[in-house]
Design goal:
mainly alpha; elongated; binds protoporphyrin IX containing FE; single chain; 138 residues
Length: 138
């Protein structure tokens, strides 16, 4: 059913890069004197996390396409996939706002919403593997 375990290989990149990038961004924004170098580093981490998120979306969609609608894990998979898309949309908006100095005011909100959606995505991904045993031979 699952030809190549590429999805579990790729998911670590967006999870790590988006989490660290968002935390650094929020920390820098909270400080009275903002460090421009760390600001740029946080945006670089978020941008690379977003791009690697596209790989996670693609490989996840390929794996999920072999799960029949009647499979008991299907609703969990739909929730997981929807949250993954929502994560990418929130981060795209947050990054777009954070890149323009005059639009920066609400970037933190979209990046925080993205981080929460990412955590929920990972939770449902774990359910797929550890509860429903998707991707596990046997
Ligand atoms: C930002 C995008 C995504 C992230 C961060 C992500 C994260 C995860 C994580 C952490 C797991 C558990 C892996 C493990 O413990 O080995 C997982 C499993 C899974 N995900 Fe995703 N996921 C994403 C997008 C998607 C999408 C869009 C789909 C389907 C359309 C999908 C379908 C699956 C499936 C079927 C599994 C079960 C294991 C497998 O077949 O590889 N994922 N995902």
């Amino acid at each position: 059913m699952f030809a190549a375990p590429l999805h579990p290989l790729f998911v670590h990149f967006p999870i790590a890069l988006l989490t660290v990038g968002t935390l650094v961004y929020l920390y820098i924004r909270l400080k009275p004197a903002q460090d421009q170098a760390w600001h740029r580093i946080s945006l670089f981490l978020i941008a690379t996390g977003w791009l690697t998120g596209l790989l996670a979306l693609t490989t996840g969609a390929i794996n999920f396409s072999s799960v029949p609608d009647s499979h008991p894990a299907h609703p969990t998979g739909v929730a997981h996939a929807t949250l993954a898309f929502v994560t990418e949309v929130f981060y795209l908006i947050g990054l777009r706002l954070a890149l323009k100095p005059r639009d920066q005011r609400f970037a933190w909100l979209f990046l925080t919403l993205g981080l929460l959606a990412l955590i929920a995505t990972g939770y449902f991904g774990g359910e797929l593997v550890y509860h429903w045993k998707l991707g596990i031979a046997g």
